[in-house]
Amino acid sequence: MAKLVRGFRDIFGPEAAALTALESSARKVFKLYGVSELRIPTVEQKELFVKATGTTTDIVQKEMYSFEDAGHRLLALRPEGTPGVARAYIENNFAQGSPVQQFFYIGNMFRAERPQAGRYREFEQIGAEFLGNPAPAADAQAILLLKDIMKDFGVKHYSVKINSLGCEKCRPLYRQALIEYLSSSKDDLCDLCKDRLERNPLRVLDCKIDGPKFKESAPKMALCPECEEHFSQVKKLLDGKIEYIVDPCLVRGLDYYTRTVFEFQAGESSQNAIAAGGRYDTLIKSMGGADIPAVGWAMGAERTCAALGSLPDCGEKKVYVVSLEKDCNEYAFNIMQTLRDAGIITEGGLFDKNIKGQMKQADRTKASLAVIVGGTEKERGTAELKDLTSGEQKEYLISELAAAIKNIK
To answer: What is the pLDDT of residues 83-138, one digit of tens each?
Structure first.
């Protein structure tokens, strides 16, 4: 018997509906912000993620699904979206048309990490990338865009944390101070963080094991005047538009972030980040492109749906069409198509079943109304419309049926 691969899953029913609703909310808000869709490939060269994400990240060290294809190319299933967007920006010469570009993507990502509650090896991300704008306004706009998607989708209970990781001027001093601080407790670090200590000490603060032990007491970033001014302007633009907490211990697990970083968090678990991102001003250049500043974020679609709780009732009516006699099947089928043409969600067609079987299926589909036709209705050019909640039933001409359904509250 065929079985699912561990860490993967089928998505259906309310969860599939929730993901579709989230995607719809995201597309609606992206359109309001003038953000264009970019569909990046699922498979990229492995080196893209190694170079962009960083050799010390968990993604590169132990989570990537990488393989060699028949042409002896080293490839990988995308573990995140930003490197692919950066590659597309460079390879398609987007900067020639306009160096300032705004993109979003919606797609599945893959990481070979240990499956656990709320974490799968294939998962959906919705992301946005603002390229070519160094101004604090781009940082603030990215954060508010994310807030507006949450609002439209209906997520209410979350917190927002922001921080600045500085730039190439001020981060080296902080990096050295952090190395000195952590070195005094090196024996208390996990094996992975002992290896990270010299190469990327900020990753220790993001570790699920060591981060909680050292974050609060670790030295804090002393920003250079330019970074201090940038972060101050970001906060000023956000004030009054979104509630946020400045968390000096907030770091991100990817090497390319500079200056502003942020997380949207829901719940108290270690997997409570539902969306996160920040500025990455050096990534495009490090990948062989021009010196292009950028800021972006990625949202975990499944985690965001979980933060919503239950999907709100969309208020759309569903109709189920029932045929009482074999000679009425074509008549009933034509009614189904007429209602769909009028924009009404309509199911039916189970005409080989008796009325009990058809009504049972109507209940399974959670239809709120049933259209019932027999020989009498066919002869009159009518149909019986039954409210499956109240039991009220009334006959309508086919020409009036769609309008009658739409008028039912």
So the answer is: 999 999 999 999 888 889 999 999 999 998 776 666 789 999 999 999 999 999 99
- DSSP 8-state symbol, 188: G
The model carries a pTM of 0.86
Class for domain 318-407, per CATH?
alpha beta
For 205-212, which contacts have Cβ atoms below 8 Å and span 24 or more sequence positions? 205/178, 205/249, 205/251, 206/251, 206/252, 206/253, 208/270
The model's pLDDT over 143-192, given as tens digits with 9 standing for 90+, comes to 999 999 999 999 999 999 999 999 988 888 888 888 888 888 887 788 77
Taking alpha carbons only, the member of 283, 300, 301 closest to residue 292 is: 283
Q: Which CATH number fits domain 13-170+221-308: 3.30.930.10, 3.20.20.150, 3.40.50.300, 3.30.70.260?
A: 3.30.930.10
The answer for residues whose C-beta is within 8 angstroms of residue 262's C-beta and 6 or more apart is: 143, 160, 161, 162, 163, 244, 250, 276, 277, 278, 297
- 273-279 sheet: strands from edge to edge: 36-37, 101-110, 122-131, 294-300, 273-279, 258-265, 159-164, 245-246
What residue type is 248 in one-letter code?
Answer: P
**Residue intervals in the chain for CATH 3.30.930.10:** 13-170+221-308
Please report which helix (H) or strand (E) contains residue 394, including its range.
Answer: strand 393-397
